[in-house]
Amino acid sequence: MGLGKYRSKVTGTERMKKIRILDCTLRDGGRIINCAFKNQEIKNISEKLADAGIDIIEMGFLRDGRDVEYLGDTTFFTEVHQITPFLDNKKQSVLYTAFIDYGMCNIDNLDSYDGTSIDAIRLGFTKKNYDENKEDIIRWAKIIKERGYKLFIQGVNSLNYNDAELLEVIEMVNEIHPYSFGIVDTYGAMYVDDVDRLYGLIDHNMLSDICINFHSHNNYQLSFSLAQEIVKLSANGTRNVIIDGTLSGMGKVAGNLNTELFVDFMLRKLHYDYDLDVIFDCIDDYIYKYTIEHKWGYSVPALMAGVYKSHPNNVIYLTEKFRLHTKDIGYLLSMIEPELRQRYDYSNIKKVYEEYTGENIDDRKTIDEINKLWGGKDVLILVPGSTISTYERQINSFIDNNDVIVISVNFVSAYKDSWAFYGNKKRYENDIRVDKSQHVVVTSNIEPRGKNSLRVNYHTLLNNTHELSDNSTMMLLNMVRKLNTQKIFIAGFDGFDKNKRNNFVDESFQEQRHNAASYDKVNREISVMLDEFAESISEKCVITFITPSYYQKYVTNREIIFKEKITV
Fold first, then answer.
1. Rounded to whole angstroms, what are the CA distances from 43 to 22, 75, 86, 426, 495?
2. Exposed e or buried b for every residue in 204-224, given b needs 16+ CB within 10 A?
3. 3-state DSSP of 299-331
4. Are 92 and 58 in contact (CB under 8 A)?
5. Residue 305 near residue 329 (C-beta atoms within 8 A)
6. What does the angle CA 396 – CA 401 – CA 404 come to, to the nearest 5 degrees?
7. pTM here?
8. Confidence bin at 409 (pLDDT 50/70/90)
């Protein structure tokens, strides 16, 4: 008999007074895949969780404020009744919930509870929401209760509140009288003493029949320990406690408390009644596949999100640039105002990054100098894709038979008299070969080594309307745009394959952090930038790819030529 077959020594009534598990895989776990679970997955996961004895199952978000038509295959719902088909085998012993972020839907349109869909709604709000819209939050809470749902109140990032502020929130909670109130470790930044303080204040000042719900993230690798601490704190009282988890800890960056870990703890130490084997099956069947293309769990960037109490998307944005050292990312996060740091504002983090990474310089004399050195010659741009190795012989022949200036991107090539262009600070600083090249151009986000390097303005080379604005190859093309160049040849600008080993000429470039699931998006965006670039120079320059590229699939401009084979 497997461990998952252990059975409770605690009666159902007793269990209800103490600890229950809420699994939020379909909601918070799903954020790492933009909640794009397939319909059958949603149904099967929720049913497996119920079969395993999980007490509360969160089905997803309610967000009619997204202005997106609900078409299925997502746990972003716009109406309560859309969840109903997934609950046709609804278990009466299970509480089913959905999550509403304050301001993300029209609460007045909320369907009344009819027993066929979710039973409860979790209402989340930020401290900024609370400070500016407290009365409206109360109105939302009352509407949820009036419509017949059990109400969970989740104040985002409990560490944002000092003792006096938290007591004020508890006063509001007592007035509303919800089913549950949450201790929420949004940024995975809590230590045991934080949990002790928060639990003590809440437990001693909140009405005794309101549950305490603990939701954590695992940035400090403490979610499991903190959940056990909550259990310990609840042992001497009668307070009902609800612990959040996700299957395999699924969630953005560091992820969440692992449901299976806490279930095992409840089986072994408290002898509660769950079926761990069913949970393992659910992970194998529906979650494991996502671990292949999406990374979550401990990492130094995940730790930094906790250290700086930052929204994980800010950290993801900076790490996916793969141009900064970790210490630089930390410094950047510290520069952002704490309140703004806790939100994800794409335009703001992009602005902060670009202002930090490159100083504005007057490079007009440098551009004139490069123009004189290159003399209006044709240009061959070498990008470190795997094809420059595959087609090395043909590229050599092309160079021998054509009068071209050879420029490598973020590496020093072996070709005689070639140039190296660096837009990536990290790769420049880590490349020992730079010192062996007398022909180096760097952007102004880089402090050059040696006196022979030419420095051009970083900001004028950016593709500002795009997320991948500082792609080094596109920045080099923008520099070439300023020169008297009539023909641009490109080799090794391959695009991204889901198999990372196929993407670069050697392992030193494998540091890039785009996950496999995002490669198609990256390929599409760079293709759009190529189209825009080609259009901007169409009257004076021709672009020819002399090695195969994934971009051919998406590029629409006919003036960009993709050669099937290299001709010399």
1. 17, 11, 5, 45, 36
2. eebeeebbbbbbbbbbbebbb
3. CHHHHHHHHCCCCHHHHHHHHCCCCCCHHHHHH
4. no
5. no
6. 85
7. 0.74
8. very high
pLDDT digits (tens, 9 = 90+) for 37-79: 999 999 999 999 999 999 999 999 999 876 678 999 999 999 9
Strands laid side by side in the 440-443 sheet: 454-456, 440-443, 419-422, 404-409, 378-382, 487-491, 542-545, 560-562
Band (309; pLDDT cuts 50, 70, 90): confident
What's the rounded Cα separation, in Å, for the pair 65 and 28? 18
Residue 228 CB contacts under 8 Å (≥ 6 apart), including other chains: 265
Residue tagged 């020093």 (tokens): 412
Handedness of CA 448, 451, 457, 461 (dihedral sign): negative
Residue-level pLDDT at 25: 98
Output the average pLDDT for the chain. Answer: 88
8 Å CB contact between 183 and 215: yes
Write out the two tokens for 276.
Answer: 């761990």
Sequence-ordered strand ranges (E) for 423-465: 440-443, 454-456
Q: In angstroms, rounded to a whole number, what is the distance separating the alpha carbons of residues 359 and 325?
A: 18
Q: Residue 87 has what DSSP assignment? A: G
Task: Reduce the DSSP state of residue 151 to 3 states and report it.
Answer: strand
C-alpha pair distances (Å), 508 with each of 431, 442, 503: 9, 19, 11
Fold annotation for 10-293: TIM Barrel (3.20.20)
Q: Which helix (H) or strand (E) holds 350?
A: helix 346-357
